[in-house]
Structure formats: structure tokens, C-alpha cells
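F.,

This is the one I mentioned.
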């Protein structure tokens, strides 16, 4: 397999070992997803993400059964996801994967996690909680995206223009309604 551009940075690193450990835990646990039925929602028309709602009910073949829904209808994660590349990573680390952006994004996040933790704390101390969306968007969720592209809904209250931790990152805001141009571009 061709060596990736970021291979030298993470080969035999603490970040690589941390991700191997996390993947082992993920694959060893019998995590199940439960089939859900959408009973109602307001997704027929565009709406602000903060106003969106969905009513879900666990799908049950036999409603009279006393066994919990997760035991009856759960689907193992390993039955839904091709885990071969994860298992290869556990065995051989970054050398096992080509230049796949999700692995790079996770390894970068593990590498910079302390900086992001401190940034989130600073934002929460400075804004008293009103900067929670900014803190989590800029220093957690966006860091786990290969593209780093995100939007905070422009109608959010007390929306900051720059990150309050001191990194001065521009806070990306816009329409996040389902069906909006950003949402559609993000889906593709």
C-alpha cells in the first residue's frame, strides 16, 4: 500500500497507539443500534436546526415480549460497518491505511486534544456558557471532520464572530436548515 503523506508524523506515535486502543475497545464491545420508526417531525419544510424536532419510537416486532428492545431488535455495529480497515489499522497502524482523511482528522485531533480542551474551557469561562455552540463547533466537532467545514446557525443568540479562546478563528455561521444550500453541499 502506498505510504501516505502524513505517515511519518504518526507512524509509531502516541496518537497512533491511542487510536489503536480506542478502536480495539470499539470493536470488542457488542454495541447495538436499534431500529427506529419516525412517528412525526417538522422536516417537510426548511426550519432552523434548533427548532427541528422528530418523534421516534423503537421498532418492535413483538410488542408483548418482556425482553428490552435493544436485545430483540438491535443490530451490531460490526454487522453494519465494514471493519476490515479498522482491524488493519489496529494491527499495522497508519502504514495499513492509504491517505484517508478521516484517520488523519482523528489523529490530528488526538495530537491537539489538550489545546482544544483548554480552548473550550477558556470560551466557557469568558462567555458563561453562551459560547458553548462556538466552543464545541470550533474546537471539537469541526476537528473531527475531514473538511473542517461547519456552520453555526446564524439565528443563534449571542453568536460570536471570532473564537473567544484567543485563536481568533472566524466562526462560520449561516443557514443550517434541512434543505439549505450548505446542508445539501455537506451531504454530497
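My design for it:
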Amino acid at each position: 500500500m502506498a505510504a501516505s503523506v502524513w505517515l511519518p508524523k504518526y507512524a509509531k506515535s502516541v496518537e497512533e497507539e491511542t487510536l489503536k486502543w480506542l478502536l480495539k475497545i470499539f470493536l470488542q464491545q457488542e454495541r447495538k443500534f436499534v431500529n427506529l420508526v419516525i412517528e412525526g417531525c417538522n422536516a417537510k419544510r426548511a426550519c432552523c436546526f434548533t427548532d427541528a424536532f422528530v418523534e421516534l419510537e423503537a421498532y418492535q416486532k413483538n410488542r408483548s415480549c418482556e425482553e428490552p428492545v435493544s436485545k430483540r431488535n438491535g443490530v451490531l455495529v460490526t454487522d453494519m460497518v465494514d471493519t476490515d480497515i479498522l482491524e488493519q489499522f489496529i494491527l499495522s497502524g497508519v502504514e495499513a491505511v492509504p491517505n484517508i482523511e478521516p484517520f488523519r482528522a482523528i489523529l490530528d485531533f488526538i495530537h491537539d486534544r489538550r489545546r482544544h480542551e483548554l480552548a473550550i474551557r477558556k470560551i466557557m469561562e469568558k462567555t458563561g456558557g453562551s459560547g458553548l455552540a462556538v466552543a464545541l463547533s470550533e474546537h471539537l466537532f469541526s476537528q473531527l471532520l475531514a473538511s473542517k467545514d461547519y456552520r453555526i446557525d446564524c439565528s443563534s443568540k449571542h453568536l460570536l464572530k471570532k473564537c473567544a479562546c484567543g485563536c481568533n478563528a472566524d466562526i462560520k455561521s449561516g443557514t443550517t436548515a434541512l434543505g439549505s444550500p450548505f446542508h445539501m453541499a455537506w451531504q454530497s
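The two ends are 27 Å apart (CA to CA).

Talk soon.
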